[in-house]
Design brief:
Blueprint: H1 2-24, E1 28-35, E2 47-49, E3 56-57, E4 63-67, E5 80-81, E6 91-93, H2 96-100, E7 114-118, H3 121-153, H4 159-177, H5 180-189, H6 198-210, H7 213-219, H8 222-238, H9 243-265, H10 270-287, H11 291-307, H12 311-328, H13 334-349, H14 353-370, H15 376-391, H16 395-412, H17 418-433, H18 437-454, H19 460-476, H20 479-496, H21 502-517, H22 521-538, H23 544-559, H24 563-580, H25 586-601, H26 605-622, H27 628-643, H28 647-664, H29 670-685, H30 689-706, H31 712-728, H32 731-748, H33 754-769, H34 773-790, H35 796-811, H36 815-832, H37 838-853, H38 857-874, H39 880-895, H40 899-916, H41 922-937, H42 941-954, H43 958-970, H44 974-986, H45 992-997, H46 1008-1019
Parallel strand pairs: 1-7
Antiparallel strand pairs: 1-4, 2-3, 2-5, 6-7
Helix pairs in contact: 3-4, 3-5, 5-9, 6-7, 8-9, 8-10, 9-10, 10-11, 11-12, 12-13, 13-14, 14-15, 15-16, 16-17, 17-18, 18-19, 19-20, 19-21, 20-21, 21-22, 22-23, 23-24, 23-25, 24-25, 25-26, 26-27, 27-28, 28-29, 29-30, 30-31, 31-32, 31-33, 32-33, 33-34, 34-35, 35-36, 36-37, 37-38, 37-39, 38-39, ...
Length: 1020
């Protein structure tokens, strides 16, 4: 029995122990309710509630006690403090942060004092502190402006410092506009001097009585606060002070750091703020204080490093914060979502957009589970996601989330709240990327309406809004409105900003953009160079913004035809970006694309291909597979392959570009229209003019749906359609669309705008196709007149005009004038283009033809061989332009009567064209015509007949029957010759000069049938 009894008593003893431990767990929270800075005067009759407790009212000495039913030690509390005291007077909570972070203590001896004050008392104090802090901030702002002016005036400039100061100026202005200084003033007003150290009391007194922030900061110097903490911590470790008293002294040091933060925030010293927060974190680590509170301070340090532009440091602290929170908080706690959010923003600044997206989605997932559907925090998450999708080029998703954010903000914000203004701006930008420029304008105007109501009339941010509107009006083709808003932004900024502020450079760039659209490239370049002059004074030589401006200046030099200058500035830009950006940064791809364009303008198509492939490779490494920038790369490659004569590759890459755009953009996006036009161009190069027409019409349909009737892009579509109808041979339709394009352009542009010259050139070609060569000449002369007004005398476009005039005179039979203008074109091209540029080859080719027509076969052959020499050097062996060179040399030999030599070169052209072109392509059909005539004149009739039959298998045009007539005439089969010539004329052949002069018809000229045909044509 004893063993049994022993077991029983042992069990009872164990049960008693367990019961004793359970009953020792603390189930109470107690403390006092005290008035702020009153000498610990109690506040009686204040209600303290918590849903798991019985609740209590503070007694006469301010004491209260809450008993909890189910909560365990360490559990978070949700305390509610009543809004009045025993006498019914309104009060407000002061130490919100402490009360909000309260947990059920492990010991009943732990106290939570609740600090209150009469309602409104802190607001009155905060207003006074705000005035003091705002004065300090304004002085600091002026001091920074003067510092910038002084640095810019120095001979040896510290560019990095200047750049940093301007960045600080913008952040300072943003801080002044925000509620941050008010928050800090309220923070000082919330200090409970009853619990503060003497140094905090002294600092507050300096502000309160002397309005002296600097003296207060001297009192709260980091060295003094740190010394006070070290002393308190040492005494705690040595047991000189009771633990609670030691902890109170340590917490006074934390309070001193927080007071210092409130003051230096007004001086915009973000690195110092971050350092103070890190020091508080160090105290929490060393003293083993609450990890959750420590994570909050760590997060604040990260935020201020972020504001200071030190994103790598911010990233490290954000990751540390997240690690702590994941250890101590539930996985779906809202604080964890905040950490994801901050990490996402930092990854965004480091251009790691996929990481940014991943973390924003994690933050949203938590918030959607934890918050009600219209919580403003959800709007923040939606906006963050929208911006990330914008960075990734997924604009439809960006729009979707911006609209979600706006829906919440319109419910929860006041009518003119700044967050609404930002939301409207975000939507405007996104609609712009989606090509919906009317919606972009609508939301730009909504944003401006808010800013004009809540900002002073001379506020710099109004200038940003005007600038945004100018950009939108540029996209809408309303250039006068764009100039108006550019002028508004410029006027405002010149009034309120330092003379060297970067916004003034932005203003110049805005003007440049609009003047470029207006075709005034000289003025546009002038404004960009003014911006460059300003930025080179204030930015370091390798600043990324200079790289962007160098690219823009390169583009203006391209517009002005100075391709060497374009290349020079593109290389300057790339040099900076390769120095300062990570190797896989997307902006490097932009630089490669720009260089490719410059090399293309210089005729270096293999270099163009090399850099376009580099750009594509970079983008594929950084971006999602269907990012619009990858579509841009495919499009650039398509143009390059077009230049290289590989039209199948051109079509292939154009299709890949279009496929991406269809996935990522709305069906009526202007970029889809551009892509359709590119498809049309590719099909045109392949000789498939019906497909070319189909895609030109698709492009026009989009533009007519989404743009105003007089938009410049509609005129461009008409222009493209005119070219296509010309290819098809429908010259009346070609004329109709060229006239439509000209009508729109005359409405949008001044009479001597370059696009008017473009239209005159197009009309000249059309009238040439219609046989009205004199009218064509008149339009070519008008185009030349405009080009001379707008462009330098040696611009490549002037050379283009001269070549057009040469062709017009050639058509009119004036070979002397034709040669004169072709030589003028050559003089320009030899001056401004590299010696092996394709356009030089084309000019040599034309000059060779003109010499041939003037009977100088030696000169003709000399220039034809020059043209071939260039093309063989720079083009691939199967390039269509090489085929054209062979064809032209063949023609030169043909004209000189060396038919066998001519055939030799014709066959070289045939080999290339039959590889590249469909059998019905006009160039191939014309070649068959040349070969069969050459064979016939060389008395090689079986070969001539074989090519005539080949020709007939792919075409049934009038010229075919003219060639049959020549074939039969040379064999003296007169009846067959006359029958075929008659058929050719009936089908529309009307080249009387050829009929009356070509030697192949000599045998039938005395025949009545021949004479009847000539008489009939002469009557026409």
């Amino acid at each position: 029995m004893k063993p049994t009894l022993f077991l029983i008593f042992s069990g009872l003893a164990l049960a008693f122990q367990v019961f004793s431990q359970a009953s020792s767990a603390n189930k109470t929270l107690q403390g006092r309710v005290l008035y702020q800075s009153s000498g610990n005067k109690p506040a009686a009759g204040v209600q303290i509630k918590e849903k798991d407790s019985n609740g209590d009212y503070s007694k006469n000495k301010g004491e209260y006690r809450l008993s909890f039913q189910t909560k365990r030690n360490g559990a978070a509390l949700a305390l509610e403090i009543g809004s009045d005291n025993r006498d019914g007077k309104k009060i407000e909570l002061v130490n919100e942060k402490e009360v909000k972070a309260a947990k059920l203590p492990a010991s009943p001896d732990e106290m939570l004092d609740i600090i209150v004050c009469p309602a409104g008392q802190r607001d009155i104090a905060a207003q006074k502190y705000y005035r003091i802090l705002r004065t300090t901030a304004d002085k600091e702002l002026e001091k920074k402006k003067k510092e910038v002016d002084d640095l810019v005036a120095q001979k040896d400039k510290d560019y990095k410092k200047i750049s940093d100061l301007f960045a600080q100026l913008d952040k300072m202005q943003a801080a002044l506009d925000s509620a941050k200084i008010r928050e800090q003033a309220f923070s000082i007003a919330s200090i409970n001097l009853d619990r503060a150290s003497q140094m905090v009391k002294d600092a507050v007194r300096e502000i309160e009585e002397e309005n002296d922030v600097e003296s207060a900061l001297n009192i709260l110097s980091i060295e003094k606060v740190d010394a006070a903490y070290q002393e308190a911590s040492k005494r705690k470790q040595q047991g000189i002070l009771l633990a609670k008293k030691a902890d109170d002294a340590i917490k006074q040091s934390i309070m001193a750091y927080e007071a210092r933060i409130s003051l230096i925030e007004a001086e915009f010293k973000y690195a110092e703020v971050a350092e103070c927060y890190e020091r508080i974190v160090r105290i929490y680590e060393e003293e083993g204080y609450d990890k959750e509170e420590m994570a909050t301070y760590l997060l604040e340090a990260a935020r201020y490093w972020y504001l200071n532009g030190d994103y790598q440091k911010a990233l490290e602290l954000n990751l540390e914060t997240l690690e702590i929170r994941l250890r101590i908080l539930p996985a779906d706690d809202i604080q964890i979502s905040n950490s994801y959010n901050d990490l996402a923003a930092t990854y965004g600044e480091l251009s790691q957009f996929q990481k940014q997206l991943e973390l924003n989605l994690k933050a949203l997932n938590i918030r959607e589970k934890s918050l009600i559907y219209d919580d403003p925090l959800l709007a923040t998450s939606y906006n963050n996601l929208a911006r990330t999708y914008g960075n990734l080029g997924v604009y439809q998703k960006a729009l979707e989330f911006h609209i979600k954010a706006l829906t919440i903000l319109e419910k929860t914000s006041t009518l003119n709240h700044p967050d609404l203004g930002m939301s409207y701006n975000n939507l405007a930008w996104t609609y712009g990327e989606l090509g919906d420029y009317q919606s972009q304008l609508e939301f730009n105007l909504k944003a401006l309406n808010i800013w004009e109501k809540i900002l002073p009339a001379n506020h710099p941010n109004l200038g940003l809004s005007y600038n945004n509107l100018a950009s939108t009006y540029d996209r809408l083709g309303d250039y006068q409105k764009a100039l108006e808003f550019n002028l508004k932004a410029s006027t405002l900024w010149k009034k309120v900003l330092p003379v060297n502020h970067p916004y003034l450079a932005a203003s110049n760039i805005g003007f440049a953009r609009t003047y470029s659209f207006l075709g005034d490239f000289k003025k546009s370049l002038e404004y960009r160079l003014q911006a460059l002059d300003l930025l080179e004074k204030i930015l370091p030589a390798d600043h990324i913004n200079l790289a962007t401006l160098y690219n823009d200046i390169g583009m203006e030099y391209s517009n002005l035809g100075d391709y060497q200058k374009q290349l020079e500035f593109n290389l300057k830009s790339l040099n900076i970006r390769e120095k300062v950006l990570p190797i896989d940064h997307p902006d490097l791809a932009t630089s490669y694309s720009n260089l490719a364009l410059a090399y293309g303008n210089l005729g270096s198509y293999h270099k163009q291909l090399e850099y376009n492939l580099k750009a594509l490779d970079r983008r594929k490494k950084n971006l999602v597979v269907d990012h619009p920038d990858i579509a841009v790369s495919y499009n650039n490659l398509a143009f390059t392959y077009g230049n290289l004569g590989d039209y199948q590759k051109q079509l292939e890459y154009t299709l890949q570009s279009l496929d991406i755009l269809k996935k990522t953009l709305q069906a009526n996006h202007p970029d889809i229209a551009v892509s359709y036009n590119n498809m049309a161009l590719a099909y045109g190069n392949l000789g498939d003019y019906q497909k070319q027409l189909e895609y030109n019409l698709r492009a026009l349909a989009i533009r007519e749906e989404s743009l105003q009737d007089t938009h410049p892009m509609i005129a461009l579509s008409y222009n493209d359609l005119a070219v296509t109808y010309g290819n098809i041979g429908n010259y009346q339709k070609q004329l109709e669309y060229n006239l439509r394009a000209l009508e729109i352009r005359k409405k949008n542009h001044v009479a001597d705008h370059p696009v008017i010259a473009d239209s005159y050139n197009n009309l000249a070609f059309t009238y040439g196709n219609l046989g009205d060569y004199q009218k064509g000449l008149d339009y070519f002369l008008q185009a030349l007149d405009i080009s001379k007004k707008n462009l330098p005398a040696d611009h490549p476009n002037i050379a283009f005009c001269y070549i057009n005039l040469a062709l017009a005179y050639f058509k009119l039979g004036d070979n002397v004038k034709a040669l004169e203008f072709a030589l003028k074109a050559l003089a320009i091209r030899e001056k401004v283009l590299p010696p092996n540029h394709p356009d030089l080859g084309g000019t040599y080719n034309d000059i060779g033809v003109f010499y041939g027509n003037l009977g100088d076969q030696q000169k003709s052959m000399e220039y034809a061989i020059k043209a071939l020499s260039i093309r063989e050097k720079i083009l691939s062996p199967d390039h269509p332009d090489l085929a054209r060179a062979y064809n032209n040399i063949g023609f030169s030999y043909y004209i000189s009567g060396e038919y066998q030599k001519g055939l030799e070169y014709y066959f070289k052209a045939q080999t290339i064209w039959e590889k590249l072109l469909p059998p019905t392509h006009p160039d191939l059909v014309a070649l068959y015509n040349s070969i069969c005539i050459a064979h016939a004149k060389n008395r090689q009739f079986p070969e001539a007949k074989a090519f005539l039959e080949k020709y007939q298998s792919v075409s049934n045009e009038p010229r075919l029957f003219r060639d049959w007539a020549a074939y039969y005439a040379l064999q003296n089969e007169k009846d067959k010759a006359i029958d075929n010539l008659k058929k050719a004329v009936e089908m529309g052949y009307n080249n009387l000069t050829w009929i009356m002069s070509d030697s192949s018809l000599e045998n039938i000229r005395s025949e009545k049938g021949y004479k009847d045909i000539v008489e009939q044509l002469q009557k026409q």
